[in-house]
Design a protein that fits this description.
Blueprint (H helix, E strand, L loop, with lengths): L2 E4 L6 H10 L8 E4 L10 H10 L4 E3 L3 H9 L4 H4 L4 H7 L4 H9 L4 E4 L4 E4 L9 H16 L3 H6 L14 H14 L2 E2 L21 E2 L12 E4 L8 E3 L2 E3 L9 E6 L7 E5 L19 H16 L13
Parallel strand pairs: 1-2, 2-3, 5-8, 8-10
Antiparallel strand pairs: 1-11, 4-5, 6-7, 9-10, 11-12
Helix pairs in contact: 7-9
Bound molecules: manganese (II) ion.
């Protein structure tokens, strides 16, 4: 019997199947931990979701930003749902979407197995969070996801602020907790997340640290396995095993054996599609001053109504 953690699948069904074959996964005896971001971008999101759902009795799943984004879009009108990419539409308009999304909504933000000695989250933990605190905050959000008012949670979920503080309450508290568990990479020593920094360590501005090496961070009594940060690649250190190795962008899909005596990693090649080069901003055309102001006004209005955005920012990173 083996327990394996598997990195971000991102709708890469064929790659996932190859990895399960490589580790000779046997549902009769083995167990799987999925690090989240099961869907989006890989082109086979519906197949991937069906596969993980079919393994639900022998798996643990934590939600990633793309999974939460899919769930939020799942609550919108069919007209709005037709604005998202074809891969997500393949899930939203599938016959079994209600069953799959209802199951996905009941997954966790943090999974803990103290006997095994591991905690799994999608992205990261706040600097001051022990594993016990992290577990408590994950349970807060999981209770909302499973409660009657989950639609309200999805409506209030989008946005980069506020920074985490234990004194937060209401929708702001929910958003801060969700952002830490599902979007964290770099942060300041006080825990302010640098949402725009996605590169490998060393590329970040001074004063920012990978969340797991922030000076003064809490001591943690469990090893942490996580995904979300493909530019970091396979990283083992500071009590953290980061295993998003960019399967969706011609990287690899990684499995890490959690009950092994020594480091045991198995990888298969990812989808054969290169990462897009960062979009170049076109030079701003010259506009008369009053025209520019009007345009800015319209943009501000658009920002206030995130439901109008065809692809929400939570799932765009
Ligand atoms: Mn992610």
């Amino acid at each position: 019997m083996s327990t394996w953690a598997i990195g971000d699948l991102q709708g890469c069904y064929d790659v996932t199947q190859r990895l399960l074959e490589r580790i000779r996964f046997d549902p009769a005896v083995d167990r799987l931990w999925f690090c989240g971001d099961l869907v989006n971008r890989g082109g086979q999101s519906i197949e991937t979701l069906r596969l993980v759902h079919s393994l639900r009795e022998v798996s643990h799943v934590v939600l990633g930003n793309h999974d939460l984004s899919l769930l939020a879009i799942g609550e919108r009108s069919p007209e709005d749902q037709r604005k998202v990419n074809a891969d997500l539409q393949g899930v939203l308009f599938a016959e079994d979407a209600p069953e799959l999304l209802a199951w996905l909504r009941k997954q966790k933000l943090a999974h803990v197995d103290r006997e095994l000695g591991w905690m799994m989250v999608h992205a990261g933990l706040a600097p001051k969070w022990t594993t016990q605190l992290a577990e408590r905050h994950a349970r807060e959000i999981e209770a909302r996801l499973q409660g009657e008012n989950y639609r309200k949670l999805f409506r209030n979920m989008y946005g980069d602020g506020p920074d985490w503080s234990p004194r937060l309450s209401g929708p702001e508290r929910d958003r801060a907790i969700i952002n830490i568990f599902t979007r964290m990479r770099y942060c300041s020593p006080r825990g302010r997340i640098a949402f725009d920094q996605k590169g490998e360590p060393g590329s970040q501005p001074p004063g920012l640290y990978p969340w797991f090496s922030v000076p003064g961070r809490a001591q943690r009594d469990l090893k942490v396995v996580c995904g979300h940060w493909s530019a970091l690649g396979l990283f083992v250190g500071q009590g953290v095993h980061a295993i998003d190795t960019g399967a969706v962008w011609s990287g690899k899909l990684t499995a890490l054996q959690l009950d092994a005596e020594t480091l045991h990693v198995v990888q298969v090649p990812g989808r054969d599609v290169a990462a897009p080069t960062p979009r170049q901003r076109p030079p701003k055309p010259h506009r008369p001053q009053h025209d520019q102001r009007r345009r800015d006004g319209r943009e501000k209005q658009r920002e206030k109504s995130p439901e109008k955005l065809p692809v929400p920012e939570m799932g765009s990173e």
